Predict the 3D structure of the following.
Amino acid sequence: MSTLLRTALAALLTLAPLTAAEAQQTHIVQLFSLSFSPDDLTIQEGDTVRWSWVNGFHDVKSGQNWIPDGIFNSGSPATAPNTFQVTFDAAFLQANPMPGNVYEYMCQLHTPVMNGTIRVQSPVFQGGVLPYGTALSAPGSLALLNGAPKLGQSFTVGARNTAISNSAPALTFLLVSSDHWDWWPVGQVLPGFGLNGFSDGEQLISLSPPNPLAVLGPVTWGGGTSPAAPFPLTVPNVPSLVGVGIYLQAALVETAGGKIGLSNALQVVFGQ
């Protein structure tokens, strides 16, 4: 299944626990006569560093061993008051890769005594599970039971009928898709495919080729208040899967009569 998961969408970052707005900060580095303060600064991806001239005649140029590399440059030397800033966001890091995201810089006028370092830490993407759908799909009928969708780890989702307290036993199947139905976060209404008798249900995931990527099951669910039928899933330990998402929806087939009901859906995004 790992090969199939590689084909899933890679733009499902809405579940990241740290949003861009929360992550962005501005850090001030002051320029004195012969020093930057602080001269060794650790920031988070998305943060801005603003250099502020306090006194002296300076420039700010990125580079190593006193040789500018052109990644950032404040321009001609200036005196206070003056400022220069750089935002170390994902686009900047991708366009200007450095080992370990470490960016050294200098005042070229005051070599070799005036230099500094910016260390950029990329956030650890934790991943997440987001239920979606409307009342037609019986909220809670598919839910995360335990674990987390992280690389090399397992998590378990469970399916049950939450629409009727005395619902009948069923065989449960889990459909895995790389995309949602077109009208996210609602689905296509399917008459007779609800979990409450012959009510309407919803198709919440894409079934257009190459979907479904997989159909897992059947797993027996005992009906009524029985524990949810479990589906354990393992995320391959493949770094390129971080941020990749899949969509899950369960189908419950009553063992007496063959009635099919569809659960709510889960958007699952892999973390590390």
